[in-house]
Amino acid sequence: MIVRFLNIFIFLSVFFSIVVYAELNIEVTQGVENPTPIAIVPFGGVLLEDKTSLSDIVSADLLRSGLLQPIPRADMLSLPSQTSDIIYRDWRILGANYLLIGNIKLEVGEYKLTYELVDVLAQRLVFKKTLTVLNSKARNAAHQISDDVYEAITGIRGAFNTQIIYVEDFGRGDKRYRLMKADADGAREKVLFQSDQPLLSPTWSNDGTQVAYVSFETTRPAIFRQNLITGAREQLTNFQGLNGAPSWSPDDKTLALVLSKDGNPEIYLLEIASKKLRRLTVNSAIDTEPNWNNDGTGIIFTSNRGGSPQIYQMGVASGRVERLTFDGNYNARPRVSPDGKSFVMVHRHNDIFHIAWQDIASGDIRILTQTWLDESPTIAPNGALLLYATQSNNKGVLAAVSLDAGVKYLLPSKKGNVREPAWSPYLNQ
Amino acid sequence: MLPYRLIKTYVIPIAVTLCIHGLLVALLLNNWEFKTEKNISVKPKFIEAKLVELKPKSKPAEVKKSSKIIDLTLQKKREEQKAREAENKKKAAIKKKELELKKLKDKQKAEEKAKQEKLLAERERQKKLEEQIEQQKKAEEEKKQLEKEKLQLEEAYATEAQSYSAIIRSRIEQNWNKPPSARKDMKCVLRINLVPTGRVISVTVLTSSGNDAFDRSALQAVKQVEVFSEIKNMSIGLFESQFRQFTLTFSPEDSRL
After folding, report:
1. Do B18 and B116 belong together in one domain?
2. Does B189 have pLDDT greater than 70?
3. Has residue B119 got a pLDDT over 80?
4. Where are the alpha helices (DSSP H) in A68-197?
5. B175 contacts in chain A (CB < 8 Å)
6. Any domain includes B181
7. What's the mean per-residue pLDDT of chain B?
8. Is residue A81 within a helix (H) or strand (E), and if so which, with residue range?
9. What is the DSSP string of B116-163?
10. What is the set of domains in chain A, with CATH numbers?
11. B59 in the same domain as B95
12. Are residue B86 and residue B195 in the same domain, yes or no?
């Protein structure tokens, strides 16, 4: 019986292989990881008031992404500012896959920008957009353009138009600790708060309008929140012992934080409006560094309840605890990715501290950085890059690495030691 | 009286002019007929051309046969030419007679000529039929031979096609800037049209991956290659059967995320 079926099968397969003539298909599964070359032509029209070049900012943004390779301006044979002026052959010879051109018009107190991304190989417009910004926000416009180009080419939403906060320590003098805010590229720094006493653990609210941090200004650690628009500050906790590691819930109504008022560090939830406190963890070990998962149902935190620091997840309603990390004897400081499917952490491997990335479902770990003292990872809202603190020339600096470890760069060095960066969510600017 | 006299005096000139006009018309008609005959004679040439085309495909052993046929057609051509020459002479004679004799006789000659032409045409047709039958027989033989050859060729083509596919794949892979948003389950199918020099003349998306950036990267990979220069060394049969149009499937295997 089986033999008969086999015979029929063989007959049929031979028959069909002869009769059905399928079109030749070649399968491509491997690609290069080279950055895509793009020509960013200086925008036509008026110059910006502060003489900075919009296209320079865009070039720097895209270069930093590691996924795009801007072509040097000196190589450009022409500087078109509208699609009808494009000589495709020239750009093809230069090796540009894409071409960004644009125009700046000055209207009362505003710039009116038109910009177009062109697919050089297909000789086709990818998009044409217009943008009107206040004169003072030209830099935001440049980052917006970078975002649009990045998304069109990579398929990932851009995060150039976001900000970071971090703590800068000048080492000595009055107000040596400063809480700083800057663009994601490190430009346009602004002091949010300064103090003679240490500042720690700054963190963004999910709507991007306020930050929470730990300040020692009252001689013992206390958690504050500060409105970024009005500058208004409010002290949220003043308990004995440790008050630290605040983390905003997805709806920004509750803070997860660490208090040691009952003996050893435990995780609590603080309702901001009512100041109602609820204890989450109850055990004799240290539970710290809480971080909400993206739907607000659970908290991922560090605990040494198993003997060494490891990362655990706890259901906020159920209180059920599950251990997430099993590799190595030190895993701490988790930060959940925007899609909630993975987290980054500080991971000790061969006695060196690395930034590592772990997929929650599979438990797969990927080590992203190599230096010996990497700390405080924070993920960009698009999930493509993460920022962390590291040492360079005996100085604390910020560095970035892509979540696939393909791109790494240092942010421009500041005067002081820079620590504890936190990347903002997407902002409405 | 005067007009009548005038008419009388012009009768002869008028008659002469009418005759000349008639002659002209007759000549023109004859010439035109002559041309149409030429058109008919083009047909055998066409057949000959067809046979020459078939020749390289047949085996050397059969070349003799086909050359015989070429001879036959040549003979036939010569005969036709002779016939034409003869006719031309006849026509010249007829033309002379026409000058002397008039329209009645002219008609008779034309009828005779038509009959002769009909006979000739019938003979030609018969010859052609015979030839066609012969050709059909030969074509059948050739067909069998070709089928054998085709099978052998297909086997040869299969291995050749594989190596060319590998070349094309690697050329594309070298030029594919896979976007970071590419995921393992994404799939984009393109249809490529080439010319025998290997130049890409068109690329279209058959099945989109659903991710614009991914589709565009695939299109750009093909357009970046522009010419698969290795293709021009390919046997034309293989090119026509498989490489003039084919599909490319882009599906990332080593996606890092």
Report:
1. yes
2. yes
3. yes
4. 88-93, 138-154
5. 32
6. yes
7. 76
8. none
9. HHHHHHHHHHHHHHHHHHHHHHHHHHHHHHHHHHHHHHHHHHHHHHHH
10. 36-154 (3.40.50.10070), 163-423 (2.120.10.30)
11. yes
12. no
A388-406 pLDDT, tens digit each: 999 888 888 898 888 776 7
Q: Do A153 and B181 touch (CB under 8 A)?
A: no
Tell which B residues from 188 to 207 touch A, by Cβ distance under 8 Å: 189
Residue B158 forms part of a structural domain: no
Q: Which residue from A139, A161, A148 is spatially nearest to A55, judged by alpha carbons?
A: A139
What local confidence, expressed as pLDDT, does residue B151 receive?
A: 82
Task: Examine the pLDDT at A14 and tell me if it is beyond 60.
Answer: no
Which pLDDT does position B246 carry in this prediction? Answer: 92
- Is A406 touching B (CB cutoff 8 A)? yes
CA dihedral over B3, B4, B9, B10, signed as positive or negative: positive
Chain A, window 342-401: residues with a beta carbon less than 8 angstroms from a chain B beta carbon? 384
Whether chain B has a CB inside 8 Å of the CB on A69: the answer is no
B253/chain A closest Cα distance in angstroms: 5
Using the Cβ of B225 and the Cβ atoms of chain A, whether some distance falls under 8 Å is answered with: no
- Condensed to tens digits (0 to 9), the pLDDT of residues A29-43 reads 666 677 889 999 999
Residue B161 lies in a domain: no
Q: Does residue B160 belong to any structural domain of this protein? A: no
- Same domain (yes/no): B13, B105: yes
Shared domain check, B188 and B78: no
The beta-carbon neighbor of A26 closest among B178, B246, B254 is B246
| Tokens at B52, concatenated | 């020459």
Number of structural domains in chain B: 2
- Lowest-confidence segment of A50-64, A182-196, B3-17 by average pLDDT: B3-17
CB < 8 Å to A404, chain B: 180, 256-257
Strands A163-169 and A177-183: antiparallel
CA distance linking residue B242 with residue B227, whole number of Å: 17
A296-312 pLDDT, tens per residue? 999 999 999 988 999 99
pLDDT at A288 over 60: yes
| Distance between CA atoms of residues B87 and A223, nearest Å | 120
Of B181, B218, B250, the CB nearest to A154: B181
Give the mean model confidence (pLDDT) for residues A156-181.
91
User: CA nearest B185 in A: which residue?
Assistant: A29
B122 and B72, same domain (yes or no): yes
Question: What is the maximal distance between C-alpha atoms in chain B?
Answer: 119
Rounded mean pLDDT of B22-40?
A: 59
Q: Is B164 on the interface with A (CB under 8 A)?
A: no
For tokens 């930060």, the residue is A335
ipTM score assigned to the predicted complex: 0.70
Over 80: is that where the pLDDT of B230 sits? yes
Residue at which a domain ends, from B118, B153, B188: B153
Please give the residue that has the higher pLDDT: either B87 or A117: A117
CA distance B163 to B170: 11
- Comparing A12-16, B19-23, B241-245, the range with the smallest average pLDDT is A12-16
The parent domain of residue B82 ranges over: 2-153
Residue B94: predicted pLDDT: 74
Q: Scanning every residue of chain B, which has its alpha carbon at the shortest distance from the alpha carbon of A27?
A: B249
Q: Which of B153, B184, B212 is the last residue of a domain?
A: B153
Verify that B20 and B141 share a domain, yes or no.
Answer: yes
CB contact under 8 A, A29 and B181: no
> B218 and B130, same structural domain?
no
A23 near B CB under 8 A: yes
C-alpha span between A301 and A316 (Å, rounded): 12
